[in-house]
Design brief:
It is a single chain. The chain is an all-alpha fold and about 400 residues long. It has one domain: Growth Hormone, Chain: A, CATH 1.20.1250.20. Helix content is about 80%, strand content about 0%. It has 17 helices and no strands. The protein is globular. One of its GO terms (cellular component) is plasma membrane. GO terms for molecular function: transmembrane transporter activity. It is a multi-pass membrane protein. It comes from Brevibacillus centrosporus.
Length: about 400
């Protein structure tokens, strides 16, 4: 980030960036290795492990709309702190699970915590960050996320090699520390929707047809993005026969973003059609995943995931910047919360169906199948977002002016 932009960034946003980095460090240290733990030490099928991940995902994003509305009504800081504390408990619980139902309880608690802090945190970023530097701050946030991912792979690989218990407790402790830091240091962020009841906020979002359409289309994006947690780690282990290479491949995605995200964002500054950019990024992600069909070595895997990472560098900053452009200022949390349904449905389908298709592709000796589906999803999302941005009619034209402002 440029120094002048960093100087313009308020203290509250800098603190949010710091806690975001720490939470991503804890999250990505645990989640990829949870899949390997469930399918390895516990002995579950990949589809069953995917079900646990999807329950966590759906508990978070399925309730995020309510969490976002609550954050608008009662304040962003308190909602964030509560959510961080709940996730800390959920992640730490994985260390002590022995029965199937216990894993699902831990997954639900972990998701519920995210439903509280995620839309509140995103809304706080949007409200506290001056609009003139918002896109740069979101791009830098994506860089910090990936720095956290790199660090998480080192920690995750080391702790999982000793005992998964330590990894689970570490992840829970990170979220607990973030809750304490936010409680004591983050300045109060007043509720912005005091003139709306929670019901009125929900109805307002649901009547925004363009935003609902946008949310539905994004389900395809999150289908692709969630393969990084499930099928890609399994593919890497199957191709290289080395669990340590999972961390190398996931870190390669993050290192690419760290080194190139700000440069890619600068290249995109002159391109104002944000929805089309999200579609182009999603298509590149799908292409990178499709190329995994032909990967037979670690170097080929790294090349393919670099292409996948390039797609995320194009899509992510525009994706998070578009949501507050739909939303009235006093309903930003509700809009971010409702947008979470794209992650809830797309991510859950990506984890359940993705895991099932991967298992079936091995049995049928059709290893191309899951990755071809990813390519088709990328093509579909790109086409639908392009159509949305260039749609005719009063609503479409009105949105076009907002999206290109």
């Amino acid at each position: 980030m440029k120094r002048e932009i960093w100087r313009e960034t308020p203290f509250g946003v800098k603190l949010l960036l710091s806690t975001s980095f720490m939470m991503n460090l804890g999250f990505y240290a645990l989640i990829p290795y949870l899949t390997l733990y469930l399918t390895g030490s516990i002995g579950w099928a990949l589809a069953m492990a995917g079900l646990v991940l999807s329950v966590r995902q759906f508990a978070q994003q399925g309730l995020a709309f309510i969490g976002g509305v609550a954050a608008d009504a009662f304040g962003y800081k308190g909602t964030m702190v509560l959510g961080m504390a709940v996730r800390a408990i959920g992640f730490a619980m994985f260390a002590f699970c022995t029965e199937t139902w216990q894993f699902f309880v831990a997954a639900i608690l972990s998701g519920l915590g995210g439903a509280l802090f995620d839309p509140a945190g995103s809304a706080a970023f949007a409200v506290l960050t001056p609009e003139a530097i918002r896109k740069e701050v979101f791009a830098f946030r994506n860089v910090l996320t990936n720095i956290g991912v790199v660090g998480s792979q080192i920690i995750g690989t080391a702790l999982s090699a000793v005992d998964f218990t330590y990894l689970s407790l570490f992840a829970g402790a990170v979220f607990g520390i973030c809750a304490l830091v936010s409680f004591f240091l983050l300045p109060p962020i007043a509720a912005t929707s005091t003139r709306h009841s929670m019901w009125e906020s929900m109805v307002h979002v649901l009547k925004d047809r363009q935003f609902v359409r946008f949310t539905v289309i994004l389900m395809g994006y999150y289908y692709l993005s969630n393969q990084i947690f499930l099928t890609i780690p399994l593919l890497v282990e199957n191709v290289t026969h080395n669990k340590g290479d999972v961390g190398i491949v996931l870190s390669a995605v993050s290192v690419s973003v760290i080194l190139l995200q700000m440069k890619v964002s600068q290249w995109m500054e002159g391109f104002s059609q944000r929805l089309t950019l999200i579609g182009v990024g999603t298509l590149i992600m799908g292409t990178g995943l499709f190329m995994l069909t032909f990967a037979s070595s670690l170097w080929m895997l790294l090349l393919d995931v670099f292409l996948y990472a390039l797609g995320t560098m194009i899509a992510v900053p525009n994706l998070v910047d578009v949501v507050p452009r739909f939303a009235p200022r006093d309903l930003v949390g509700a809009y971010y919360g409702f947008n979470g349904y794209s992650i809830a449905v797309g991510g859950s389908v990506g984890q359940i169906a993705g895991g099932w298709v991967y298992d079936q592709s091995i049995q049928l000796e059709a290893t191309w199948l899951p990755w071809t589906i990813c390519l088709l999803v990328g093509v579909l999302v790109a086409w639908m977002l392009y159509q949305m941005e260039h749609s005719t009619g009063k609503i479409g034209k009105d949105y076009a002016k907002i999206a290109r402002s």
